[in-house]
Known about the structure:
Helix content: 25-40%
Mean pLDDT: 96
Strand order of the largest sheet: 2-1-3-10-4
Structural class: alpha/beta
Amino acid sequence: MKLALDWTPNINHLGFFVADALGYFKEAGLEVELLDPQEDNYAVTPAKKVEMGIADMALCPLESVISYRCKRHPFDAVALATLFQEDLSAIVVLEDSDVQRPRDLDGRSYASYKARYEDEIVCQMIKNDGGAGQMELVYPDKLGIWETLQSRQYDATWVFLNWEGVQARGNGLELREFRLSDYDIPYGYSPIILASQKRVEKDNPSYSAFLQAVKKGFSYAKQNPGEAVRILAPLVAEQDKDIDLLKSQKMTIAAYGNHADWGKMDRHRVDQFLNWLKTKDLEKAPLHYGELVYTGLHF
């Protein structure tokens, strides 16, 4: 089985690399390959690799599932599990910037990943804070977006606080963060594991075994953070070698939830996000939790 990672190896992926290194995949009778987007410089998105049959699964935000379901020619994308029970991301600016709050981003530059709904979500955050929601949107190379903020080329971007946030502080850069939930935006889940519904139904045992092994990997990482980050360390991209992996992992652990609810996605939270997208005219399709989240796997 092939899993397309959403980014170069980082703390969000820890459970996958632990499961591989400690033989959990092999114990489950699986051969698993983790595809690094650095190999093609993000030329093909992780979710697109699943649609094209290059990968069996992909890491991406829940928005990717929604987007594929709503295309003119839909792809049967489903979310199998979420890695985190809480949102570890935020829109950030450098702390020494005069952007004190979201509404100050009006007229400022925002480095976008060009993800589905991303620009509209950030603009809505500005509006919810009393601004006009008018930013200068720029689309740098995806794997270089974080560097554009550090170098002050652009004013703001969206990061994972448990990765880029830790890296920034380790380099003496303080960030000012704006979390979506603080500005009345009911965000969904990210990252989630995306797959094709038909392929999952055709080979339910393999997908179930994969998730069981991954869950075991994340449980090990939670209980043994030091040992787990030693597994990840050699795999981290050269530009990220300065990150304090143990600090990053300790910041991440609480988001795993408990062993029983790892991977589970709350129906109300998903439907609330879908309703918000519809209310803001960002999506018109009447989708609901049952169409997006596949619940027929055992893990």
